[in-house]
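User: Is it possible to get a 3D structure for a protein together with its bound compound? The compound here is beta-D-galactopyranose. I've pasted both below.
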Amino acid sequence: MYFGVDYYPEHWVFPYAGTAEEPESRWPVDIQLMLDAGVNVVRLGEFAWGLYEPEEGKFNFDWMRRAMDLFNEAGIKVVLGTPTAAPPIWLARKHPEILPIDAHGQIKHEGTRRAYCANSDVYWEYTQKILRALVGALGHHPALIAWQIDNGIGGHNTETSFNEETRRDWHAWLKAKYETVARLNDMLGLSFWSQRVTRFEDVPMPRQTPTVHNPALIVDWMRFSSDTLVAYMRMQAQLLHELTPSIPVTNNLRALWRSFDHFDMAEALDFVSLDSNATINTKSAELACEIDMMRSLKKQGVRTPDGDCGFWVIEQKAGNVNWQDVNSLVRPGVVRLFTHQLISRGACGVLYFLWRQPRIGSEKFYGGVLGHDGSAETRAYREIKQIGHEIKRLAPFLKGTRVVADVCILYSHENDWSLRFTTQPTQHFHYREHIQLFYTALHDKNIPVDFARPTEDLSRYKIVFAPSLSLLACGEADLLRMYVQNGGTLVSTFNTGLVDEHHIAPDSGYPHDLTDVFGLEVREFDPLPPGEQNHLTFRGAFPATHLHPGKLWCDIIEPKGCQVIGVYSKDFYSGKPAMTMNQYGNGRAVYLGTMSDQPFYHDLVTWLRNLCGLHPLLKVPDTIEVSLREKEGQRIFFLLNHQNSPVRLHFYKPMHDFLSGNTFTGSYDMPPHGVLVLDEQPEHRQAAAEHAKTATVHSGQGSAPAIAAG
Ligand code: GAL
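Assistant: Yes, that's possible. Here is the predicted structure of the complex:
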């Protein structure tokens, strides 16, 4: 398994390190410290263009080759960045047309990174030139195992630009999509405010205007902008595949933060890598959700450097970040905990950002493995060294294992763009937060979750959650119908099927094309101001542990054959359904007409678990996070204590912990931020049989080990 750091050799030469006589003398010192910590890979060079090519056509890759040679001698492999995230100053001076223009018509100037428009022909040309030169110089270096294309694509709000070349490509994209101007006018609904055009060339880019643009145009614009970034990534990937076919390509993505389609982007890559932020303020369920989103981006065709099937964490923060209001130190043990959390959810490579706090530039107070003084006497270095050794022990057992989920949450970028960038019934609805309510409930009950887009094959999932697919394409609705028909359990919510892919509202009732699947029709919806609440009362077997509120949005539902599970208890729609279930084909479709607080979603998952025969991975105290990586004949459980205090576990079967080598029986106090990696080896199963008579608590699928709360 690859374990490493992000290293910037250019930061550690004279005058910042080394001496005038031996400017690079720090490099071997760093390499030795890396080796001691178990490092076997580094990422290099993702912003180095201006150093590789200080003047146009004058290349100097020698310094990087010397660094790579040293790594190679030490047996440390290299992921090399293509340096296009930071165009050199001379390029922007010579070709200012590469600089991105924003919606106000303002240029985003040179002098930092990401100052390029991905529609620029000149930028494509220069990208190919630097890539060819880079591959010529370093692409066949024995240490090279992967390319990272660009860096943080779309970051710093560079997902869209409004340049003249963008306008040209936008019109070509529209032409390819609609073929005729008449169809474009109809499908984009340009009769509204009579904005019809007579030529494709007259369709505006959605720049700053007196009021909001046509929503259909905005969603198309976001699709087009996403396709632009993916095309730029694909162009680099294709060139690299052509020149170095054996070297896989990746990019450092963030969990669906940026406004491009991450699933499309992942298709352009051989494997997905992500940036992860271990900060003390982040909740474990939120981090876990991000990791599962990223793991789910590429479910097939993964090609990692060592042939493993997961994803990489190419920037796991080694300490504090520098972009919060207050960048507090990361507490002892937390980086280790978060690293194991990433591995537990499928990571098969982890690199820390960054090896050493830079003495120069805008990230100098970012937490590093080493501080400015370069000494290894740091808390972070000790912790990472410990993790390095743990990973060495774990790696052979993890090889080839994967996370398997029976539950899936749907996520649609197009829907997200529609919700964020077009006028909505309420400004207080937040798609990501709504998803998190479902995710947290599943996470807290230790039920593994995949994410998928609505167009994927969902047949393998027992339950599919589809929160607020407000923009739902007709084809997507058909797939959901089929999923239920064939026996699946679909859980949808308010704010579903209000518009189709053309942003046209249905004339056949909401949720469009699915009213028969849910056995209801939403007649009206009542967005509630913050602080206002309705209340829900439940019928039958729904296990309500609290008085659950209805918040933010209340659908007024006319049942048409569905079973009513819960009703509103206030206002003129008191007594009307708020939650329903419908048998359709061989499956069922559950509908939640409102939003509630977290405890409702916990109850919902308890109810669904019984309904669908879902089991938690293990029975443990609520505060312990459990994940499972498995392959034929091997199941490895990760238990993480995210608390600042110890948590007592009871083992009803002896369990072997890979990290400590201990076998646990009876009770064990898991320390604050503690991690256990447990397996089910045959000899332990044997021993477990002896204990079976005394086991009082069983959990999970029949064969899952039983651990119970104290
Ligand atoms: C990453 C980026 C790094 C660094 C970091 C700061 O996305 O790749 O270069 O800037 O963010 O959070």
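The longest helix spans residues 215-243. The mean pLDDT is 94.
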